[in-house]
Amino acid sequence: MSRIVGDTARKKEIIVLAPTDSPQLFGRCPESEEHRSWVHFHSHCYYIESSYTKNWAQASRECTRLDATLASIEDHAESIFLSHSIKPLESKITSFWIGMSKNVNGQWLWRDNTAVDFVNWNEEEPSSYGNEKCVEMYASSGYWNDAQCSYKRGYICKKSESIKTVLTEKPPERKGEKKDEEVSGSPTNITWLVIILVILILSGSGCAAYFYVKKKNQDHFLPIVTRMSDTKASVDNQEQDEHAVA
């Protein structure tokens, strides 16, 4: 629609476009089931296992089974969130496996291939003492420690949230209005109306031409019939007169 805005010098026409409906995206985590529940932070979901302990490899396989990976920690905010989440579990589990481990080249890498841009090592860690190639997070402080991968620990799984698209709801249309719009605005309906109108005009013109020609023919033949009747009457009268004289 357009709107005219008054101005002392001139009038400007401003085109105002109606907003279009756009889908809204909502993230959600898997439904809780049995003893397992997921928590949401930013665009990810986390499952914290404190009831059963596993070594690092077993924990990694269990996260994979849940369509997740052992958790990577990308920044300080995420680290604080997980630290606060596991702190109440300190009495049950002292530490939790996260997704960092050391490769054959001595590099610390995340299981899900996230870039290592943030670390939160405990003091004097990583110590690389013995065969310590996996990383645990302390429940008491949230700091990290390198440990032997065979140790039994709790673990934290992480996955991206599921995206659900919800279309913006439109107000319901009244049937009468919709029908009127279809009748008046449909190109197909307009085309049929034009065709019907043309047929009616042609039919009317044809009928008018037919009656005009018929009337003209009648006017043309009427004097001939009249003259023939007069001639016959004259001949009859003449024959009667001749018969009377004889």
Automatic annotation (TrEMBL):
The keyword Transcription regulation does not apply. It holds the Pfam family Lectin_C. The keyword Secreted does not apply. InterPro entries: C-type_lectin-like (IPR001304), C-type_lectin-like/link_sf (IPR016186), C-type_lectin/snaclec_domain (IPR050111), C-type_lectin_CS (IPR018378), CTDL_fold (IPR016187). The chain crosses the membrane at residues 190-213. Residues 41-158 form the C-type lectin domain. PROSITE patterns: C_TYPE_LECTIN_1, C_TYPE_LECTIN_2. Keywords: Disulfide bond, Membrane, Transmembrane, Transmembrane helix. This is NACHT, LRR and PYD domains-containing protein 1. It comes from Platysternon megacephalum.
